[in-house]
């Protein structure tokens, strides 16, 4: 496990060889300790919204919503189901359609941005209290709160790292010029700069290594959606104008 990853964790993970390089084990270790001191709270202000958590036996209804109590075994599954995965939620009540639309728009849309900020360490302290990141989902028209989700920061980091949450747009790494299939693009050695985003795509910064499958014809023009632009021809060498190291693998 890299020093950068260690710096994100609110505990010292087990360093036995069998688990020391496994982020999942680190998350499970933390989740097991966290059961006694915290929980995910999925709160619905008002009584119209209803939901069913996707982890039977690990959720209970409360007056205002559902409390999901994490366990070492189900921590990742609960987080993924609650955030994104199809079938993770069932909505009912008179405003069910509006809730589903808001959930899809604000969670699937804004969560990508939130994850990026979490991974980059840019989430304000108020949103990262006690190691939790709170995401408020509001009605686009009225501005009223619909759902509030609170998750351990390290679990959001893991979701971003493993690509369990889909990106807001088709990809954060958009090939231009020659066609490059997104699934053939991989990012390596990005943990050290804490700029991982979602899935196979990353916000490239100086020092990153971009690894392209040899089947991809180079040179390749790439642009990174958002604030950074990688122009020019990126070849099988260090690109001086960007600081990005390009490697072609067999």
Automatic annotation (TrEMBL):
Flagellar motor switch protein FliN-like C-terminal domain ranges (all copies): 185-234
Instruction: Using the record for this protein, list the coiled-coil segments as residue ranges, or answer none.
Output: none
What is the residue range of the signal peptide feature? none
Classify the source by domain of life: Bacteria
The protein depicted here goes by the name Flagellar motor switch protein FliN-like C-terminal domain-containing protein
Q: Which organism is it from?
A: Sphingomonas sanxanigenens DSM 19645 = NX02
